[in-house]
Structure formats: C-alpha cells, structure tokens
Amino acid sequence: MSFIRDTLVMFRRQLLLVARSPIWLIIALVQPVLYLALFAPLLTRLPIGVLGGSLGTAASGGTAAAYRFFVPGLLIQLGLFGATFVGFTVIADWRAGVIERFRVTSVSRLSLMTGRILRDILVLVAQALILVFAAMLFGLRAPAWAIPISLGFIVLVAIGLASASYATGLLLKSEAAFAPMLNAIILPLMLLSGIMLPMTLGPGWLQGIAMISPFRYIIDAMRSGFAGQYTSMVMLEGVLVAVGMAAAGLWLGSRVFIRENA
User: Fold this and answer.
1) Where are the domains of the chain?
2) Which of 74-83, 103-112, 119-128, 156-165 has the lowest mean pLDDT?
3) What whole-number distance in Å separates Cα of residue 148 and Cα of residue 152?
4) CA-to-CA distance for 17 and 19, rounded, in angstroms?
5) Is 185 in contact with 210 (CB distance < 8 Å)?
6) Residue 253: how many CA atoms within 13 Å on its side-chain side?
C-alpha cells in the first residue's frame, strides 16, 4: 500500500508540473498532425494491395486505406518520441537536487519512476485520442475495437520506453550524452518500422533488416486491428513484443532507480 500511495503522490506532482506548461502538450502534437495533413494524402495514390499487404486490409477506397495504414504508424511515432525523450526530465531533476531530496524521505525509490510513467501514459493516451479524432476528420474509418486496441499498445510502448529512458537518463546524467544516443537509436528504429511507408516497397535485404525492429511487429498488429482482424497471428506477435518491451523496460528502470537511490 505504501508503494501505491507513493506512486500516486509522485503522479500528482508530475501532473501539476504538466499543468503549469500545457503548451508543450500541444507542441508535441504539431508534428504528427502535420504528417497527417501533408504526408498521408500522398499514400492515397498507392495501390490498395500495397497498403494492405499480408494484412488483407478491406479498403473501400484509396483515402480510407491510406489512413488505416498511416494512423497506426503515426500513433507509434507519437509514443516513440513522447516516451523516449522523458529521460531529459529526470536529468534536470537530478541536477536540481530533486532526486537527492526524495532520497532522504521515506518515499519508495521505485515510485519515483512509476509516478512519472503514469503521467507519461496519461499524456500519450490523451494525445493519441486527439490525433485519432483529427484523423477521422481527414477520412479515417476504422472498426470500433481498433481504437482501444491501439491505445493498449500505446500504453505498453509508453511503459517500456519511458522506463528505459528514465533509467538511461539517470545513468548518464548528461543531456549532451543523452541526446545523440537517442537520435542514434530512434532514427533507425523509425525508418525500419514502416511508420511512414510500407516496408514491402523496399528491397529484400532492407525488409530482412527491418525484422529486427520491435516496432514493426507492433505497428503491423495495430494495422491488423484497423483492418478488423483481431485474432490473427500478426496481432499475437504484436502483443507479445509489446508486453516483452514493457516488461524489459520496467525491469531495467527498476534496477537503476533502486540502485541509484539506495
């Protein structure tokens, strides 16, 4: 019970910090909305079979197929950037002495991370709902269950990536080291995940390399959900990969926070 109470205390503290600067939540949505408005229409010219691929997307037209393909990738991109950059906040707190002040209290060391993660989940889910609503205005049409399934994937991605980001930030304690490391990891993962374009358009060797990206399986599973296929092997693979990422991130973050705050 003490851990839950401490987590909620940290969660409320993080929400207050967000409430003081809500403009950043809007700024974080600008890039995905621009992609939605300026890039997604380019996909309407692609053959429906290319967009659907092995998922067998039942498309009623170019626009509908394009947004059913593009929005899941855009949601993962939102989670990818939103969850990995949170490590900068823990570096700032460490430098300001906030982490040190909590160490001398009875608050659970692990709650310093879990309270932040709950905040990150809430923010990303809210942003994802806004993005989906905007996509519907542009022409997205999807089954009712596709939205909650996508939000579930975003929650798992947020847990895994935010935990790893906080752990890495607390270990490095330097924005100068953290920033280039993120760019070196995020950019290849994003390009190999098929977020922007179908990987089937690439040569065989590139499709083979792309298999190492865990986000490709998650995005394919979300696109399967948007196609109304909830019990496919693609969906199962995506769920297993997302759960595995969340578990691995929590394990890493827990070890680092407990050790660094012992």
Assistant:
1) 2-260
2) 103-112
3) 6
4) 5
5) no
6) 29
